[in-house]
UniProtKB/TrEMBL annotation:
Cofactor binding comment, as recorded: Binds 1 zinc ion per subunit.
Organism annotation: Roseovarius marisflavi
Keyword Oxidoreductase: yes
GO cellular component: cytosol
Name of the protein in its database record: Histidinol dehydrogenase homolog
Lineage: Bacteria, Pseudomonadati, Pseudomonadota, Alphaproteobacteria, Rhodobacterales
């Protein structure tokens, strides 16, 4: 796969992953033992939050009243898109049954989880869309109890618009708490919440590590790292648009890589020329985040053919994959490793991040090679069942006993023998189907 790197990524200093893991392990041990009191201590010391953790209905009503109607209308519009897409996904997850052989019936059921914990990140940005993506999707899936939490913003609690979105999306309760202590509140069932069956939602390195350490007895959506984006473009693409799309994703954070692969040298050079000015034009802290991400992690790769670009994309397995090239149908069917795919110059990753409908909680760091993003399916258990009658019993018992003894599992074989012995004489006399 011939490629020429016009800009390489020098990378960043090694992350202190071991330090983060150790810190989280200690915090979770304290939180598991001390419960809500320890979580409250962390909220006071780490977030500076002196208020109550559980948001009351009157506080939600007051926050809703303060949100401008135009913004509420926009949040409603995005919520409608996200819910409608989730409902269409839910319709694809069906109960079913099949008669595998005469007398042997098997099936599956789709059972919603009982309780979900949705983490909505705060801090530098107010992630209104993340509230909709996780909470509304859980609600559409049929989860009965949904606890949402988010860190307070500058000592003022959860921003009004986020509270409105969390309530609109269907949160059973909302907690003003973030970080490891917020994840623990969801996982351990603190502040009146039931213990979560699954933890979902993006967060910083400490949040991600807390989810990783809790995974097993509790489900999680995915192991998530910094967001990443790849654009595939040919000579039909507009350099200003491509550069703006790359910068728009780089502003997520200093550790958020963005990549461009193209077959057009002129486009590549134009994008490289334009990006510095677009970054400079951003406000802070977006400017510094995008500048560091581009300098340390940004790449521009020149490929010989569209197939080479597709191969590069399959290797990267990006969270967001944006195609700005001719023959979009070919790309849609050819590409096979991405969190979410954005087709055409009229589309932008920001549409998916905020309001288009498909979920924006997506696999990062190459995880798209083996998993997709958050969906209603994450909140459903696909369980199976089976039932047998005398028509299938002789062969089923015989084969089960045979395979069990071949595996030296005599106890298994005897449970099959018992069923055959208990069968009616008519069933025992049915000749083997071979």
């Amino acid at each position: 796969m011939p490629m020429t790197y016009l800009k390489t990524a020098p990378g960043q200093p090694p992350q202190t992953a071991a330090d983060v893991a150790d810190t989280v392990q200690v915090m979770l041990a304290r939180l598991r033992k001390g419960g809500a009191q320890v979580a409250l201590e962390y909220a006071r010391s780490l977030d500076g939050w002196q208020g109550e953790i559980t948001v009351t209905r009157s506080q939600i009503a007051a926050a809703t009243a303060r949100v401008p109607q135009a913004l509420k209308d926009d949040i409603d519009w995005a919520h409608d898109n996200i819910s409608r897409f989730a409902e269409a996904q839910r319709a694809t997850a069906q109960d079913m049954q099949i008669e595998v052989r005469p007398g042997l019936i098997a099936g599956q059921r789709q059972i919603p989880l009982g309780a979900a914990g949705c983490y909505v990140p705060g801090g530098r940005y107010s992630h209104i869309a993340s509230a909709l993506m996780s909470i509304a999707t859980a609600r559409v899936a049929g989860v009965a109890d949904i606890t949402a939490c988010s860190p307070p913003c500058a000592g003022a609690g959860i921003p009004d618009a986020m509270l409105y979105a969390m309530d609109l999306a269907g949160a059973t309760r909302i907690l003003t708490i973030g970080g490891v202590q917020g994840i623990a509140a969801l996982a351990f069932g603190l502040f009146g919440a039931p213990p979560a069956d699954i933890l979902v939602g993006p967060g910083n390195a400490y949040v991600a590590e807390a989810k990783r350490q809790l995974f097993g007895p509790i489900g999680i959506d995915m192991f998530a790292g910094p967001t990443d984006s790849l654009i595939l473009a040919d000579d039909t693409a507009d350099a200003e648009t491509v550069a703006a799309d790359l910068v728009g994703q780089a502003e997520h954070g200093a550790n958020s890589p963005v990549w461009l692969a193209t077959t057009d040298p002129a486009l590549a050079e134009a994008v490289l020329d334009r990006i510095p000015a677009l970054i400079t034009d951003l406000p802070e802290p977006n400017r510094s985040a995008a500048a560091t991400a581009w300098a340390d992690l940004g790449e521009v790769v020149l490929c010989d053919t569209p197939e080479d670009m597709a191969g590069f994309a399959d290797q990267k397995a990006p969270e967001h994959l944006h195609v700005q090239a001719r023959d979009l149908d070919w790309w849609r069917t050819r590409l096979r490793a991405y969190g979410s795919l954005f087709l055409g110059e009229k589309t932008t990753v920001a549409f998916g991040d905020k309001a288009a409908g498909p979920n924006h909680v997506l696999p990062t760091s190459g995880a798209a090679r083996y998993t997709g993003g958050l969906s209603v399916h994450k909140f459903l258990k696909t369980v199976t069942w089976q039932e047998v009658d005398d028509r299938a019993l002789p062969d089923l018992a015989r084969v089960t006993a045979s395979l069990s003894r071949a595996e030296r599992m005599e106890g298994h074989a005897r449970t099959a023998d018992i069923r055959l012995a208990q069968a009616t004489p008519e069933a025992q006399a049915i000749p083997s189907a071979g």
